Predict the structure.
Amino acid sequence: MNMLNIIKTSLICSTMALVSAISAHAQTNTEVIGASLLTQQHPFYVALGNAMKDKAAAEGVTINISIANQDLNKQVSDIEDFITKKVSAIILSPVDSKGVKSVILKAQKAGIPVFTVDIAASGVEVSSHIATDNYSGGVLAGQLMGKVLDGKGEVAVITYPTIQSVIDRVEGFKKGIAQFPDIKIVAMQPGITRAEALVTSQNMLQANPNLAGIFGFGDDMALAAASAVKSAKKTTKVIGFDGMEEARKAVDNDPLFVGVITQHPEKMGELAVEAAIKTIKGESVEKNIPVIPGVYVKKD
């Protein structure tokens, strides 16, 4: 082999080695985030999921999103699948705040950082929790209810007792209402879907003929309550929580739907992915990343 061929062969080998090294480097830096969301039947979670996808794409990270459809067993199964696939991080909005503890611990034992978004997990510490300050939002709802009722009357709450974020909203609502000693909470019943919340609202209105206000833990619940109030030909005031377009339009057009506490799902989705990426890179993140809620009422 002459010198020219030796040089050519050397260059080819060097190039192949370089390409192989770059490829291997790219493969080792292809991070994958697994995400399990509560549902996609609500505009809030549609916006949240889309924001997560957009942020991941902008950062060059793969994100695989599974939908639990409010089924704890499915959520656990999906997260176990993420663990088996050795994803770089897991983000979830728990179906049941207490029920996800064991699978979170399993992920952490496998060395996978876990993040919760919108809904917190109970009894287990995660790398970071990104959510609306639900307690503060509940306080705002209670204060608004007290204001629109002129500080007196009977009120009811539609709740979801297994979800920590809803528990926080309701506790905040109680705190806000406590500022008005002549307002009494006379009923607190679950209504997880809009259909269930409609039945719950009808029952509460029937059982409490003087009901002056209803607080729904989410837009769907408040919209169902407003529908029940209208059908019953009552003047009961309704306040919701989420602030999606349908609820905001109801506030603008229905004098009995007096306000809604607004969340920012796009911001929450972005921050959740950002926190996961920072942790994957070895950077520190805050244990709690709150997103401040707002209040939407009809403009004068």
